[in-house]
Amino acid sequence: MEWLVQVFKKLCKESNLGEIIGFPLSISGGLLHKMYAIETDKGKYAIKILNPQIMKRPDAMNNYVNSERIANLVSMKVPTAPAKILLNGDFLLKIDNHFFMIFDWIEGKTLKPNRVNSSHSEKIGSLLAEIHRTDFSELKIKEELGDNEQTIDWKSYIQKGQKSNAEWVELMLETVDQLYEWTSLANNANRMLCTNLVISHRDLDPKNVLWNNDNPVFIDWESAGYINPMHDLIETALYWSEEEIGKIDKEKFFAFINGYKKRYGEVQIDWSTVLENGFLGKLGWLEYNLRRSLWIECSDEEEQMMGTTQSIEAIKEIRDYAEKIPTLVEWLNDEV
């Protein structure tokens, strides 16, 4: 805690946030980074400490800069919470080999699945369409055509997991043939959809939306970038219609889609291809957590344990998603 206090004092001084009052308070930072709330004599702020393993990636810095440029531009059309621009014009501050992002504090709360209603879903669907309709051309961000294609050696992870007696090995062994099949389906779908791309948030699930009464604010834009609009539509509609037990609420699902259509216009596409493309991000998330669990891409024991837990959850989620696809295709073909 002493190191943290000293770092935050240095951060406040270098970013002109004022004198810190009290101690930094740990708050939820999602599954990748750490978040703290601090109060100074000038105001209250949310501070994100970026995952050091993520920041080692060669494209990490550019991705964070571009995501904040996207958030700032779209903030003129939808309610967003971009990072504060520092005195030197940057969004990132490096102190003691750690990267920080600073956000003005926003009063609001996220919604648990059982608190999301059709009105919430419709409103987020409408705002997602507004993002998709935004002209980002002035940012000159290069399109990532086909960059998401995956070639993952699942069996090699199983072998490594067996050597370390990883908790997820049995689940992986049960699912390994399907993992290769889903990877192939996802890559084929991605090749078909990657010629039609828009810039979007790309992770607009309920944990990344703060509500103050009925007014939403979109936070955590770090995943922002190019995506097929129909893939983004369906993936986000599923986020906002899933119950706590994993079941999809049909009314909330189509409330989201109808909210989107009111702003975006009619939507027509091969829904099977869109849903198969949905495996891509889920498989990538599974691989990342396997690497954390195996200490391949991991900072500390806490993160390694999270990698193990999330690997198990990811396998179950992918299997559940595969089972839902036929029903979702039937719904979409009937209703849309």
From TrEMBL:
<dbReference type="InterPro" id="IPR002575">
    <property type="entry name" value="Aminoglycoside_PTrfase"/>
</dbReference>
<dbReference type="InterPro" id="IPR051678">
    <property type="entry name" value="AGP_Transferase"/>
</dbReference>
<keyword id="KW-0418">Kinase</keyword>
<keyword id="KW-0808">Transferase</keyword>
<dbReference type="Pfam" id="PF01636">
    <property type="entry name" value="APH"/>
</dbReference>
<feature type="domain" description="Aminoglycoside phosphotransferase">
    <location>
        <begin position="27"/>
        <end position="261"/>
    </location>
</feature>
<protein>
    <submittedName>
        <fullName>Thiamine kinase-like enzyme</fullName>
    </submittedName>
</protein>
<dbReference type="InterPro" id="IPR011009">
    <property type="entry name" value="Kinase-like_dom_sf"/>
</dbReference>
<dbReference type="GO" id="GO:0016301">
    <property type="term" value="F:kinase activity"/>
</dbReference>
